Amino acid sequence: MVALNPPASLSVAQADNGGRLAWDARLERLVSFAFTLPCLAVVALCVLVPCAWLFFLSAFGSDGKASLENYQRILDGASYARIFITTFQVGLATVAACVLIGVPFASFINGLPPRRSVIFLAAVLLPFWTSLLVRAYAWLVLLQRTGIVNSVLMGLGITKAPLELAFNHFATVLGMTHIMLPIFILPVLGAMRNIDSALIRAAASMGASRSYTYRRIFLPLAAPGIAAGAILVFVMSLGFYVTPAILGGGNVNVISMRIARSLSNYSNWGAASALGVLLLVFTALLFALSYGVQRVLLSRQRS
Amino acid sequence: MLDGFEERPLIERLKWLLAILLVIFLAAPSFIVIPMSFSSSDFLAFPPPSLSLRWYQYFLDSITWTQAARASLTAGTLTTLVSVPIGIFAAYGAMQLSQRWRLLVSGLIVLPAVIPSILIAIGLFFVLARIGMVGTMTGLVLGHVALAIPVVFVVMSAAFSQFDFSQERAARSLGARWHQAWFRVVLPQVSGPILASGLLAFVTSLDEVVVAMFISGGNNATLPKVMFTALRDKIDPTIAVVSTVLLVVATVAVVVILRKGAAALKT
C-alpha cells in the first residue's frame, strides 16, 4: 500500500517533521527563556516590586488613608524646592566638568596608536573599580584645611590662610566628576572610534584648517556619543548619595540624602516614597530623552 | 588625533602633559589613603608625622571593625556564588532569544545598574521590613546580587557573543551529555570572563554602601557601612586602614582581570 502511494506518505512525513521542528524551535526558545528566569526573578524582587511598593506607599497620607498629601507637601515646601534645585545644580556642574575635561581627553586618546591608547584607557578604568567611599575619603584628606592642596597653595604663597575646600558644592562636584569621568569617556570614545577617518582626511585635503575640521567635522560626528555620555552622567548624578553626604558635609542637600533622612530620622515612609517616585520618574524621563536625542542625531547624520 | 594634518610638536607636547596630569587626577587621589593608614598621628595629618602600624593594630583589635570585615567577606562571597551562575545562565539564555525578546530581557537585567541605588535600598528595605528580613544576611545578599547581576551579565554576554556555540552542538551530537558539554567544552573556554565577572561581583558587594546602610545592621553591618558612619562621626586613621584594605582588594582584582585579558589577546 505504501509503495503504491509514495508521494502522499512522503508529504505527510514531511509535514509532520516540519511541525515537529517548529515545536522543537519553540521549545528551545522556551528553555532559553527559562535560563534567564533566575536573574529576572532577582530583578523583579529587588527592583520591580520595591519600585511598585514605593508608588503604593507614596499614595498614603500620615493617617493611613489614600491621599496625595506627600506630593502636595513636596510641591508646597520651599525646602523641597531647594533640594531639587541643589540636586540639578550639582548634576549640571558635574556634566559641564565632564564635557569640558572628557571631550578633549577622549579626542586625545582616540588619536593615539592602539598600544598607547590601551594604557591611557586602563588608567581611566582603574579608579572605576575603587570604592566610592574610599575616593570620597581620599578627597577629604586632600581638601581639608590642613590637607595637601592647602599646604601646597600656602607654600607657593598663593593664599595666606587655608581655603575652605571641603564640605561645600565645589568638593561635591569635584568628587562626582572624578567618579563620573570614566563613565563619560567610554561612550564618547566609542563614538569617536566609529568616525570614518576618510572624512577627516577629505577635509584636510580640501584645505580645511585643523581647528575647523575638529569643530565642524569631528565633533558633530562624535555628538551622539557626547550627548549620550552627558545625559548618562546627569541621570547618575541625580541619584548620588555617598559623595554629597561626605564631601558636602551637610552643606549640600540632595534628593537622595533627603530620602534617607525621611526614612531613618523621621520614619516617614510616605514622604521618602514620594521623593523616591519623583527621582524614579526623572530618571526614566531622562533615559527616554537620551534615547530620543540619539535617534535624532543619528538620523540627521545619515541624511 | 586628526589624520592628514601635519604635526605641531609644541602643541603635541602640551597635550601629552595635560593628558598625564588628568591621569594623575583620576588615579592618584585614591592612593593617598595608603600613607595615611601608616600614620602615627591621631588626626588626618599629611604627610604623617611618623610611620607606625598602630591603626592596623587598632583595626584588628576592634570588635566592630573585625565583625564588619567578616560580614563584608561573607556578603561578598555569597553574592559572587549566587550572581555568577545565574548571570551566566541568563547571558546564555538571552543569546538564543529572538532580537526583540533579547532586548527586553537584557534591559530588565541591567535595570539595577541604572536605577539610583538609593531607590533599590529603600524599596528593598520596605519589602524586607514587610517580611521581617531587615538586618539579615539573606536580605543584604539579595540586594547585592541584584547589583552584581548586571556586571556578570554584561561581561558574560560579551564573552558568549565571541564564542562559537556549534562546539556545544558538536559535543552533544558526539554523545556528550549536556553537563559534559557545558563543563568540559563551553565553560573551560570562557574561564577568563567567568573569573573577571566573579571578581567584579565580589568587588561590587565589597564596596557597596547605600543598600548596606539600610539593609544590613547589627552583626551584619558591612565595612562600608561602618566606615560611612565613622566618616560622619569621627575621622581617624582607622578609616585609612579600611580604605587601604578595600583599595588593595579592588586593585588586585583589576590587575588579575587585565593580565587575564592581555593573555587572552595574545593567544
UniProtKB/TrEMBL annotation, chain A:
Major site of localization recorded for this protein: membrane
InterPro entries on file: MetI-like (IPR000515), MetI-like_sf (IPR035906)
All copies of domain ABC transmembrane type-1, residue ranges: 84-290
The keyword Transport appears for this protein: yes
Transmembrane segments: 30-60, 80-106, 118-140, 170-191, 217-242, 271-293
Topology class, membrane: Multi-pass membrane protein
Keyword line: Cell membrane, Membrane, Transmembrane, Transmembrane helix, Transport
Gene3D superfamilies linked to this entry: MetI-like
Family from the record: Belongs to the binding-protein-dependent transport system permease family. CysTW subfamily.
Name listed for the protein in its UniProt record: ABC transporter permease
TrEMBL record, chain B:
Principal location listed in the UniProt entry: membrane
Domain ABC transmembrane type-1: 69-258
Sections of the chain in a coiled coil: none
Record's bilayer topology term: Multi-pass membrane protein
Name of the protein: ABC transporter permease
Sequence similarity: Belongs to the binding-protein-dependent transport system permease family.
Pfam families xref list: BPD_transp_1
Transmembrane spans: 16-38, 71-92, 104-129, 141-160, 181-203, 238-258
Keyword annotations: Cell inner membrane, Cell membrane, Membrane, Transmembrane, Transmembrane helix, Transport
Subcellular location: Cell inner membrane; Cell membrane
